[in-house]
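User: Let's play a game. I give you a shape written as tokens, and you guess the letters that built it. Ready? Here's round one.
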């Protein structure tokens, strides 16, 4: 066998160790994007394109290093490429993954640049210091892209437009005040002369940008706040969109992988290596950390070959929770979370909770849990690696943090970061899948195999390997207590959350707060006026690889809290909608949203009531995820023990918006994913092994189960919040609260499909 570590040595550290080191290294290597951008500009856009910047391959390293002092997002040349044909290309700090960020950025920049967004081409920018626009960090996630870059992108467009006007004024020998712009042209009304941005760019390039450019009055917006058609619709609907799975390189080998059945185990031996190497099209057989791989002239041949390998694996630990042991099971971990006696850290404290419980008329308690979830993205993970003759490593890797992936790739290959050219293709599925989760990503395998074979290698995981290796949303548990006064209103609430969040797992070296916000968000900082609160967090590390998942901690914690709030209402003899309104009387933004969703649904009615002879009921919830606010009502029936959701109404307040059509589609898709998790999804561990292998044994929402979704956008004028994730957290509690109203059964453990529900 071609043993990778002997045939072509690469000293690989543990993927998590690489990531931790890379997090601290990223700020030191931001400058390498200058040379990469130069390469991308000249090779990707062709000689006819004029790059707005002196980005030459001959720039010495010391000059590149000086660029690290550049304030991210301030240099026009790093973002805009204008061709002589007046075509505009925007290099985006963010990765398009179906959320519509490319279209939104084109709207924002185009508004101020005075170029119709439909004329933009938007591509993901290479790694570099200019794109660290989120408080010195670059990532696509947390529903943060638009809200973090909105002022910056407006100023970028306005600054570029000002440069064009000043360049035209110099060329025409007129005052800048006598000029106006119109869709990529500078116009001198008196003489009737029109100069395109493309022909002005060489002069504009020599002008220093101004810091005091005026921004357009929002009252005169033409593109922002309009339902501009998405830039990627035609390519995606005609099959022309190129994802990582579609990409090919000359001389490329295809590699398929078989991972260890138990996480953390390794290859002991391969019994039939010679026979597999003799199979048609097979180039070579390799061992990798925790896996075996076959490289071949087609992926199908590689897959058939790797599945034929007879591999003996090392044994996992017999028991325990430090690793994924042979007896590891989801229900065993849940039992451990429930039985934890460790003192909790205060996540939120207000008033005197102990005193309120001591004098309460009634005290209620409940335990809530939610399972491991897979991302279930449409596109299976893949990566391509190629070592070039000039000593560089070129990598095509779906990701949400280009600089971090570049840094880890450089360390894995034994190269300086500026020797790694990273391409970030658009994502065929998102949901937080493409952060760096150690061995849950295939790009390190591609690097190893390209080094070992001396050829470009494309690693593509089968759907089964994706389910085996995907980093999971954590299994979660919280225990609640509430004190209720004589008037039936809550006087205190207490919660104990035991588990682990992805923020602490993957970015603990950066965010050092002992309370992992991704584990408690949706339980803390709720808007309700409950005077005495004590929320605590107990860290209980998972042995499995955990991940960010769409809406992260909110995806389960708002279900926990809002479900328990309905229990509080019932225990106090209160209507759950009326109680929420009462608790929000000093929160006008939230109260308006709750009133709006009730009006959308034709007025609040809990039920049960009949529609066409079938009993239905409604549930309500609120959530405050990612700087936005939502109010949700779901209408359900139960037939044959199966929950059917008929309608979901969502009132959504993100403060302000860019594209209402994209906002609406994001809410609708978030509702669909939230329903899928509520009704069906669950990844189970048993005997140390995941029990789901593909979508046949990991059911997701079907068309038959999809309800009508009604969305109303409420722009409160608050600071702009996120859009991609906030529509999800309100769905599980609204559905479960509706089921409780209809059947009297309070479901505290998802998904609903594992519970016997009857009317």
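Assistant: Ready! My guess for every position:
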């Amino acid at each position: 066998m071609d043993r990778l570590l002997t045939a072509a040595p690469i000293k690989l550290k543990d993927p998590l160790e690489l990531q931790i080191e890379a997090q601290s290294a990223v700020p030191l290597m931001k400058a390498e994007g200058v040379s990469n951008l130069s390469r991308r500009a000249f090779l990707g856009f062709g000689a006819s394109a004029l790059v707005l910047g002196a980005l030459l391959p001959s720039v010495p390293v010391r000059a590149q290093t000086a660029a690290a002092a550049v304030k991210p997002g301030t240099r026009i040349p790093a973002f805009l490429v204008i061709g002589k044909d007046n075509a505009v290309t925007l290099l985006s700090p963010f990765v398009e993954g179906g959320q519509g960020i490319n279209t939104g950025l084109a709207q924002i920049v185009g508004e101020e640049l005075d170029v119709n967004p439909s004329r933009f081409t938007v591509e993901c920018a290479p790694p570099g210091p200019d794109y660290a626009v989120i408080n010195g960090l670059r990532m696509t996630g947390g529903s943060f892209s638009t809200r973090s870059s909105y002022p910056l992108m407006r100023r970028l467009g306005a600054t570029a437009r000002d440069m064009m006007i000043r360049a035209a004024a110099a060329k025409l020998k007129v005052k800048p005040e006598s000029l106006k712009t119109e869709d990529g042209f500078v116009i001198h009304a008196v003489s009737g002369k029109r100069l395109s941005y493309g022909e002005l760019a060489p002069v504009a390039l020599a002008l220093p940008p101004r810091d005091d450019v005026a921004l357009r009055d929002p009252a005169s917006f033409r593109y922002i706040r309009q339902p501009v058609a998405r830039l990627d619709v035609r390519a995606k609907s005609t099959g022309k969109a190129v994802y990582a799975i579609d990409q090919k390189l000359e001389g490329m080998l295809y590699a398929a992988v078989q991972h260890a059945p138990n996480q953390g185990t390794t290859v002991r031996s391969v019994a039939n290596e010679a026979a597999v190497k003799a199979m048609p099209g097979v180039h070579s057989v390799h061992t990798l950390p925790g896996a075996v791989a076959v490289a071949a002239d087609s992926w199908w041949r590689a897959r058939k070959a790797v599945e034929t390998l007879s591999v003996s694996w090392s044994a996992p630990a017999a028991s325990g929770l430090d690793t994924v042991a042979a007896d590891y099971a989801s229900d065993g971990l849940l039992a451990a979370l429930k039985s934890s006696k460790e003192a909790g850290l205060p996540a939120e404290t207000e008033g005197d909770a102990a005193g309120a419980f001591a004098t309460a008329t009634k005290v209620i308690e409940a335990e809530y849990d939610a399972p491991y979830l897979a991302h279930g993205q449409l596109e299976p993970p893949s990566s391509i690696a190629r070592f070039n003759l000039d000593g560089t490593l070129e990598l095509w890797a779906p990701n949400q943090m280009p600089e971090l992936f570049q840094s880890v790739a450089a360390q894995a290959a034994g190269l300086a970061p500026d020797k790694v050219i990273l391409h970030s293709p658009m994502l065929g599925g998102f949901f937080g899948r493409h952060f760096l989760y150690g061995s849950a990503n295939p790009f390190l395998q591609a690097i190893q195999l390209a080094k070992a074979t001396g050829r470009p290698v494309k690693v593509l995981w089968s759907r089964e390997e994706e389910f085996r290796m995907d980093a999971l949303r954590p299994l979660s548990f919280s225990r609640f207590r509430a004190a209720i006064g004589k008037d039936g209103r809550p006087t205190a609430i207490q919660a104990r959350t035991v588990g682990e969040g992805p923020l602490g797992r993957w970015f603990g070296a950066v965010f050092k707060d002992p309370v992992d916000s991704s584990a408690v968000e949706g339980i803390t900082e709720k808007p309700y006026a409950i005077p005495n609160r004590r929320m605590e967090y107990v860290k209980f590390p998972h042995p499995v690889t955990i991940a960010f998942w769409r809406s992260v901690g909110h995806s389960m914690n708002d279900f926990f809290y809002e479900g328990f709030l309905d229990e509080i209402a019932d225990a106090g003899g209160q209507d759950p909608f009326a109680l929420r309104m009462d608790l929000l009387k000093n929160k006008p933004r939230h109260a308006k949203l709750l009133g709006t969703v009730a009006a959308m649904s034709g007025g609040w009615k809990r039920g049960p009531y009949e529609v066409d002879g079938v009993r239905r009921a409604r549930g309500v919830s609120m959530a405050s995820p990612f700087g936005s606010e939502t109010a949700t009502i779901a209408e359900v029936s139960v037939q044959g023990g199966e929950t059917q959701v008929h309608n979901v109404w969502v009132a959504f307040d993100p403060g302000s918006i860019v594209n209402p059509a994209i906002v609406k589609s994001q809410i609708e898709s978030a509702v669909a994913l939230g329903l899928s998790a509520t009704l069906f999804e669950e990844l189970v561990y048993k005997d140390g092994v995941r029990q789901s292998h593909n979508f046949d044994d990991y059911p997701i929402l079907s068309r038959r189960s999809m309800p009508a979704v009604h969305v109303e956008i409420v722009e409160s004028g608050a600071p702009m919040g996120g859009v991609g994730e906030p529509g999800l957290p309100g769905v599980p509690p609204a559905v479960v609260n509706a089921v409780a109203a209809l059947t009297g059964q309070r479901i505290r453990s998802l998904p609903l499909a594992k519970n016997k529900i009857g009317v």
